[in-house]
Design a protein that fits this description.
Oligomer: single chain
Structural class: alpha+beta
CATH architecture: Beta Barrel
Shape: globular
CATH topology: L,D-transpeptidase catalytic domain-like
Order of helices and strands: HEEEEEHEEHEHHEE
Number of domains: 1
Largest sheet: 8 strands, mixed
CATH superfamily: L,D-transpeptidase catalytic domain-like
Radius of gyration: 17 Å
Strand order of the largest sheet: 3-2-1-8-4-5-6-7
Length: 242
């Protein structure tokens, strides 16, 4: 299992008096990608926009997956995979501003930025309730997003073409009524083989091992049921799954 290191520039999610949809970049993205989005959903036999969308990301594999939920179907379907175009940090959660870490945990999209320094950006709600307990209390960091370009110091870049497609799909699904779009970020695909490797990495770090074991419970729930993972966070920062 390998971790790759790339330096880059920090993402600044700035509100410039424009809505998430009112940007030349968004208009261009729709003109370039709407037909291929329609073809993607036609091939999947799913009405566009879907009822729900969800993202999973795997840091070691450097893959981001788009999942969609068709109407009248219980589980999500895998629709598309995007490769990270840059990577920084190592396996393990983000715990402090400037640590170069991509977060790990259960998040949701909390910001659409049509005028990002990195083309288009989808901000995630780091620090979440768990991070606020487990991370540095004064400087946990923030401004984490999925975005275009190919630089990062803690975000997930997937390139301009991929973020254009993903941004449009997210925007249209949100407009249809999905209030929170989940983003689940894992250190890797947490199957039994990879867990052995993670246990070796964390053999002298019981806090990290406990975090990963807790995260794996949610990973297993999603892999088994392909549904939104329901949870709360206890006073120790642990995810308690329903």
């Amino acid at each position: 299992m390998k971790a790759f290191f790339t330096t880059g520039w920090i993402l600044l999610i700035v509100t410039i008096g424009a809505s998430e949809n009112s940007s030349d970049r968004v208009g261009e993205a729709r003109r370039w990608h709407q037909s291929q989005i329609d073809s993607l959903f036609d091939n999947l036999g799913v009405v566009y926009p879907p009822e729900r969308v969800l993202i999973t990301a795997y840091k070691n594999e450097q893959i981001l997956q788009l999942w969609i939920k068709p109407k009248n179907q219980n589980g999500f379907l895998l629709a598309r995979e995007y490769k990270f175009t840059a990577y920084c940090g190592k396996l393990g959660p983000k715990r402090k501003q400037g640590d170069l870490q991509i977060p790990e945990g259960f998040y949701y999209i909390n910001c659409f930025n049509p005028r990002s320094r990195f083309h288009l950006a989808l901000g995630i709600n780091y620090p979440n309730a768990s991070d606020k307990i487990l991370s540095d209390k004064r400087h946990p960091g923030g401004d984490v997003a999925i975005h275009g370009s190919s630089v990062t110091i803690g975000c997930i870049p997937i390139g301009n073409e991929a973020i254009e497609e993903l941004y449009i799909i997210y925007l249209d699904t949100k407009s249809k009524g999905q209030r929170k779009i989940p983003v689940y970020i894992f250190p890797c695909q947490m199957d039994s083989t990879n867990m052995i490797t993670l246990e070796k990495i964390a053999e002298e770090d019981s806090v990290l091992l406990s975090f990963w074991q807790n995260l794996k419970q949610g990973y297993d729930i999603f892999v088994r049921h392909k549904k939104i993972v329901k949870f709360r966070v206890d006073n120790k920062g642990r995810y308690i799954y329903e």
